[in-house]
Write a structure and sequence with these properties.
The chain has 354 residues and is α/β, with parallel strands linked by helices. Helix content is 37%, strand content 23%. The protein has twelve helices and 14 strands. The strands form two sheets. It has an eight-stranded mixed sheet. β1, α1 and β2 form a beta-alpha-beta unit.
Amino acid sequence: MTEVKHRVGIIGAGVIADFHAQALQAMQGVELVAAFARNPDKASAFGAKYGCAGYSDLERFLRHQGMNVVTVGSVSGVHLEHVRSAAYAGKHVICEKPLEVTTDRVDEMIRVCEEQGVMLSGIFPRRFNDSTSIFKNALRAGRLGKVVLCDTSIKWWRTQEYYDSGAWRGSWDLDGGGALMNQSIHTVDLMLHLMGEVRAVWASGGLEAHEGIEVEDVAVAMLEFESGARGVIQASTACYSNTGLPASIHICGDQGSIMMVDDKFSVWDLKTALPEDESILAEHGLESESAGAGAADPKAIDFQWHQRNFEDALGALDKGRPPSVDGSEGRKAVELITAIYESIREGGSKVPLR
């Protein structure tokens, strides 16, 4: 029987908490022991579903015997409060995207966890699929030559009913933004992971296809990276598709071009071919099976990427090193997206990040 190294609790009982629970229960040496939701009925139902204790009192939840790690899957704009409470209770924290809705709140989260001597890891599971590692290695090896362009596209659809289903959805205080901060942040983080940091942005955006929300459902940003490369982000929840349009990232250099659609390569066009290229396309090209990415339905994602993210964080905890997505890494996407929002508010003016 596998020794239990980590007893984990989940804050939240919504859609994303289900993926946390499924990922945790698929892991070796990990036990899901408790869950917290403000609504007692939701807490009880979630606990019964996953065979763990359900709490509607946060302090009682945090006192659950033996629990040493908490994952946070609550509404974005209350992550700080939940992370702070967990850190003061001595629990290590793995927090959903975005870490918080402003960089000031992310900074406070990082400070509290450092002060209390607990780990803080963000959840950006697209970093942990095999195709991302292959893409990153190709860039590190210089196979694209001098990188000059990157375009990132998240043309998704969310119904009006989606936004109407929760008062927090589409609000600045609790959602932190719209198509960019909620739906596109995973791909924005992936872009930063592959391309490096951004020097400046120019942006335009607005609300075009939905009503009764405060935030954008379409945004376009032009980027200047620290490397000197240029890029574009297109993000929307107003692009109708019955099946869902995939998120994509396309990076071009003077020696090659690679495009990843969700977790599969649609373009692998390199000036200097290598023997492994054929097997890469066979295993990770468009014809191979793809994991769900939530383009049309946020419930239709695959928990395996979360599992790898959790395994990285808990493995780092075991080895006494920072996780791959620590607080400073998790902060980067929030910093870029808030800079894009600033440019939108200022009519598309240049906003420097460095």
